[in-house]
Design brief:
By secondary structure, the first copy, chain A, is mostly helical. Chain A has six helices and no strands. Helices cover 73% and strands 0% of the residues of chain A.
C-alpha cells in the first residue's frame, strides 16, 4: 500500500549530529524536505501515467506533498540564511548569497515540474548549504 | 452542481447532546470528519473515472478534502485520548489505547486509498470511541 | 491547575441535534466558540490582575484563545451565511444580513476588550443565528 | 515553463492607490485573488484536457491555487464587510449586504467549476465592492 | 476603542500602482506589513507600561501582531527576491542580495524588541527593495 | 539581545543518527521541541517577573513559543505512535501506549505552567520514546 510517510524515507541517513552541542539551526529539515521532493518525483514516475482512481489518488497526493516540501526547502534555507549566518560567515563563504538564491529558484522549478534531475540538483544545493553550515560550526 | 460542503452532509444526525452540560470535549468533530471521508470516497466513486476537466476538478478537490478530514479524525481522536480521558476511564475501558491506535492507522489507510469499506471501518471505530466518551459522562 | 480545554466547558449543553438528518452546516461550532470567548473573559477576570509568572502565563494564553475563538465565531457564522442560507431563507428572515453583520462586529469587540457583557451579547447573537438555522431545517 | 506566480499576473493593473492616506482595509487583496481565480481557469483550459504527467502536475496545482484564491476572495471581502463598512456606509449603499452575500456564493461556484464566465462575474462583483469602498473614502 | 485593524492604517498611501500592468509580484504586501510593525510599536509605547487587564489585553495582542507582521515582511521580501528578481536585475542592482539579507535581520530585531528606530529602519529597507522592484518594471 | 531562535539551542546534541538508513520517522523533531519548551521556561524564569515593556515583550513571545512547541511535542509523538510503530514493536514494548499517553499529558502540563521540573520530565519521556524508536531500528 502506498504510504506518503514511508515514501519520505531518505536513502542515506539524515544526520543532525554535531560534536559540539548543535543549535536549533539545523540543515536537517531542509535536507529531508529536498529528499522528499525527490521521492515524490520517483513515486509519480512509478505511476507511469496510470490515472485510474487509485493512481490519480496517489498522483494528487504526491503532487501536493512535492509542493509542500519544495516550499519547506525554501523556508528552511531562508531561516538558515537570514537568521543563522552572520557577516563573518559571509566573509568566508562569499558565494553563500548566490547559492541560497539559486536554491530557492530550484525549489520553484521542482514545484512546476516532475523532473528527477531538478530534484537531484535541489538536493545537491541543499547539501552545499548544509556543508557550509557545519563548516562554520567547526570554527 | 457539486458542492463539497453539501457533500459533507452526514446521513444520520450527528448529535453532541448530553444530559449533563457537555464539555468542549466532544466526539462530534471526529464523527463528522469520518463521515466526510466516507462521503468523499462516495463522490470519487460516483465520477466513475471521468477525468475530463470538470471531473478532474471534482476529483482533485475530493482527494484533498478526504486527506484533510482523515487528518482531522486523527487530531480530534488524539485530543480526546490525550486531553480528556483520565486513568479512571482507562480502568473501565482497558482497550481504549488500542482502539485509538487502530483508529489512527485506519485514518492513514483512508488517505492512501479510495475504499468505501475502510471508510466505514473508520466511522465504526470513531463511533466506539464516541460511545466510550458518552459512557464516561454518565458516571 | 488551569486548563484551557476545561475552561471551554459550556454551561448549557451545546446541541447539534436535528429531527431530520442534519447537514454539515451546523451552528454548534459557532456556539461553542462564542462560549469559549465568554469563558476566557471569566478566566481573565478571575486572575484579578495577578501578573506574577503563573498569572501572566494564564493571562497570555487566555487572551490568545479569546482572539482565536472570536475569529472562529466570525468564520463559522460567515460559512453559514454565505454557504448555507439561500434566497428562500432570506425571504423568511429578512434581518439575517444585518444580524450576521452585527455579530461579526461583536466578535471584533470581544477581541479588543475583556468585557463579560460583550461576550454575553455575542453568545445571544449566535443563538439567534442558530435558531434561524434550525427554523429553516423544519420547513 | 509553467509558473503559478507568473500565472497570477493580472492583465490590468491592480491599484491600491488612494488620494487620501489609505488604510489597511484595501480591496486590492480581494481584487488580485479574483484575478488569480480567473487566471487559473485560463491555465486549466489551456491544458485542453492533457493529463500526462506534466499536464496533470499543472492541473492539480492550478485547481489547488484556484481553491485557495476563491477562499481568499471570501475572506478578504468578509473583512471589508464586517470590519471596515460602518452603518453610515450602509445607509448610502443599501445593497452592500446582498452584494457581499452574492460574491461569497460566486466564489463557491468558482471552486466547484472551471468556468471562465463565473470567474469574470466574480471579478466584476469584487470590482463593485472595491468601487463602493473607494467611494466611502472620498467622504 | 482599540482596533488592531485600524492600527494597521499606514500614514502614507501604500501604492501598488504601476504604469505597465503590474504582476502579482508586488512589494505592497511587504510595505504594509512593515508599517504594521511600526504601528504596533507605537501602540505598545502608547500604553506607557499600563498592564491592567485592558492594557495587558492590548499589549498581548500588539506583540502578537508585531511578531506576525515582522514574519510577513520576511516572507514577502523573500518571495520577491527568490521568485521575481532575475539575473539581469542583479546585474543592475548588485547590492540586492545584501539588502534583502539585512532586511530579514531587521525583521528579527523588530520581533525581539519594541524599538521605534528599528521599525523605521525596517520600513526604509523595504522601501529600497520596493524602489528597485519598480525600477525593474520600467525597463 | 534576546533571540527566540538562539534560545532554542539545546544543551546536548540532538542526534538523528542511525546506523541503518533512517526513515522520515525521526524522534529528533519531538526532542528539539521538548528542549525548546525547557528553554522557554528558563527564559521566562530569567525575567524574574520583570514586566516592563521589554520584559513583557519577551514574556509574551516565550509563552507563545512554549505553547507551540508543547503542541509540537504532542503532534510529533503522535505521528511516531500512530504511523511508525507496528504491532511487532508493541509486542516488545508493551508500555508504549501508556508512555505516549503520559507524554501528551505532560505536554499539556507544560502549557498550563511555567515549571522547570515538568519540562525536564517531558524531555525524559520523549527520550524514552526516542530510545524505543531507535531500538526498533536495530532489529
Amino acid at each position: 500500500m502506498f504510504s506518503i510517510r514511508r515514501a519520505l524515507t531518505p536513502r542515506v541517513a539524515a544526520r543532525a549530529h554535531c560534536d559540539v552541542p548543535c543549535g536549533i539551526y539545523d540543515p536537517i529539515a531542509a535536507t529531508i524536505a529536498a529528499q522528499t521532493v525527490a521521492k515524490m518525483v520517483e513515486k509519480i514516475n512509478d505511476l507511469k501515467g496510470n490515472m485510474d482512481t487509485a493512481g490519480a489518488n496517489t498522483f494528487t497526493r504526491c503532487v501536493t506533498v512535492k509542493e509542500e516540501h519544495a516550499e519547506k526547502v525554501k523556508r528552511e534555507v531562508t531561516i538558515l540564511w537570514g537568521d543563522y549566518f552572520k557577516p563573518e560567515h559571509l566573509a568566508k563563504h562569499p558565494d553563500l548569497h548566490t547559492l541560497v538564491w539559486q536554491t530557492l529558484k530550484l525549489a520553484s522549478k521542482n514545484k512546476q515540474n516532475v523532473d528527477a534531475a531538478a530534484a537531484a540538483e535541489l538536493q545537491a544545493n541543499v547539501k552545499r548549504i548544509s556543508d557550509i553550515f557545519w563548516e562554520t560550526k567547526k570554527g
